[in-house]
Design brief:
Number of helices: 12
Structural class: alpha/beta
Low-confidence stretches: 301-322
Shape: globular
Distance between the termini: 48 Å
Strand content: 5-15%
Number of strands: 10
Radius of gyration: 21 Å
Order of helices and strands: HHHEHHEHEHEHEHHEHEEHEE
Mean pLDDT: 81
Helix content: 40-55%
Largest sheet: 4 strands, parallel
């Protein structure tokens, strides 16, 4: 298809072939800029397709709701969705997938991303596709635990896992509650009433004092498909930060560039994992946040150089303790 190179040239006025060659190069500014341009092109094409689906749904009086793939790994999330928060923003109700093996340490980050999009884009709540692969050991109390966790973090719409189920073959370990025998059927109305009560109590709760910056541009700029080590380091740092906050019992929100511009004033602390690249507008907002008494929590390497299309965070280190 010529759509990708044509769109790339139209958007950036540079040679698509030259940028592809640069993507596989080193970690100089020119290489990183080429990678970000490439992801911007992917983002444009990807969200355009999502918008076509949304337009069709809305024209037939249907809401366009859903989640994206590989939400629990930032590098894989960005490789497959280009700019995840902007892709999620196309949905009327953005969401995540709690498919099985309930693990808040991993799933907090995916749900926080959906919450970011819902709050910053004024969406009608948060979707969670749930209970797809929880296995035949799923108990009523397990369902109650997951529903309570979801409600307390802003989920307003529950969707049963969409794939077919079987007691044989590759999907034999899946067992959603709608196929379970008693006592699940008799308990579900009570569980859903309790979920609804918790949901209404928590949807307007803006009690998080901590925000974690999702280093999308850093991962894009550092990602060399042949040598992904640098991008993997940033991705792993993001995972570690979210896991550590969860282990410490700290409620946190995720913010992207839009969240930084619109909502940073709501928080007391901003955590920036190993995201060594910040868009210029984001850096200005972070500078203001710091000057007005906000606390920055910075990690790992700081690259002390400026790029043409963004600035790095080295200037933030010139005053104060972080």
């Amino acid at each position: 298809s010529h759509e990708l190179p044509d769109a790339h040239g139209r958007m950036h006025k540079v040679s698509f072939t030259d940028d592809v060659v640069a993507i596989y190069g080193g970690q100089e500014a020119a290489n990183q800029e080429a990678r970000v341009r490439f992801f911007q092109t992917l983002e444009e094409l990807y969200t355009a397709n999502l918008k076509r689906l949304k337009a069709w749904c809305n024209s037939h009086q249907v809401s366009f709701i859903g989640h994206l793939l590989v939400e629990e790994d930032p590098l894989e999330f960005i490789k497959t969705q280009a700019y995840p928060s902007r892709a999620l923003a196309v949905f009327d109700i953005p969401g995540c997938d709690v498919i099985g093996g309930f693990n808040p340490l991993k799933q907090n980050m995916a749900l926080a991303m959906a919450r970011l999009v819902a709050s910053s884009r004024s969406r009608r709540g948060i979707l969670s596709e749930s209970f797809g692969a929880f296995g035949h050991g799923l108990r009523v109390e397990d369902i109650s635990t997951v529903l309570s966790w979801q409600a307390q973090r802003g989920v307003t719409t529950l969707v049963p896992h969409a794939l077919f189920y079987s007691t044989r073959g590759d999907r034999k370990d899946e067992c959603p509650p709608d196929l379970m025998s008693e006592p699940f059927w008799s308990k579900m109305p009570e569980l859903l009433v309790d979920f609804s009560s918790q949901m209404h109590n928590h949807w307007d709760d803006d009690s998080s004092y901590d925000a974690v910056y999702y280093p999308i541009e850093s991962i894009q700029g550092l990602y060399n498909p042949q040598k992904p080590t640098h991008a993997m380091g940033v991705s792993d740092a993001m995972i570690r930060k979210c896991v550590n906050l969860t282990n410490q019992g700290v409620e946190f929100d995720i913010v992207d560039d839009r969240g930084i511009r619109q909502r940073l004033y709501q928080y007391s602390r901003l955590h920036i994992p190993q995201g060594i690249i910040l868009p210029t507008e984001v850096q200005k907002k972070v500078d203001t946040f710091k000057d007005q008494g906000g606390t920055l929590v910075l990690y790992d390497r700081i690259v002390q150089r400026r790029l043409n299309i963004w600035n790095v965070i080295e200037p933030l280190l010139k005053s104060g303790d972080y």
